[in-house]
Amino acid sequence: MNLSAKRLNQILKQKTGKTISQILQERTLTEAKHLLFVGKKSIKEIAYTLGFQDASYFSRFFKKMTKLTPDEFRIQTKNQIAFKKIV
């Protein structure tokens, strides 16, 4: 692409209103939610799958982004689905 990282970031910010870091965090969060919802992997396994060196750092990242821990998110989404099946 022949662009510096700084210039690419400027273009993304101008076009999307987000930096590359924000876009990558959102994508990581989307994948984390998917893995927590459909997968059987542990939180630690999900953290490593997503490239986190430390499961506790992944948990802090997830909570910062969603206001829920990964376990709380998993339980909440499973309960929502179970409730919809009942109703």
**Averaging pLDDT over every residue, what do you get?**
92
Q: What percent of residues are in strands?
A: under 5%
The 3D shape can be described as elongated
The whole-angstrom Rg is 16 Å
Q: How would you name the oligomeric state of the polypeptide chains in this document?
A: single chain
User: Any idea how many domains?
Assistant: 1
- CATH fold type: Arc Repressor Mutant, subunit A
Task: Look at the structure and give the CATH class.
Answer: Mainly Alpha
Structural class: mainly alpha
Indicate the low-confidence ranges by residue numbers.
none
Helix content: over 70%
Main β sheet profile: none
Task: Describe the secondary structure blueprint for this structure.
Elements: H1 5-16, H2 20-38, H3 43-49, H4 55-66, H5 70-86
Helix pairs in contact: 3-4
Describe the structure.
The protein has 87 residues and is an all-alpha fold. It has a single domain, classed as Homeodomain-like (Arc Repressor Mutant, subunit A, Orthogonal Bundle). Helix content is 77%, strand content 0%. The protein has helices at 5-16, 20-38, 43-49, 55-66, 70-86. α3 crosses α4 (55-66). The longest helix has 19 residues, at 20-38. The relative contact order is 0.10.
Question: Main traits of this protein?
Answer:
single chain; 87 residues; mainly alpha; elongated; 0% strand
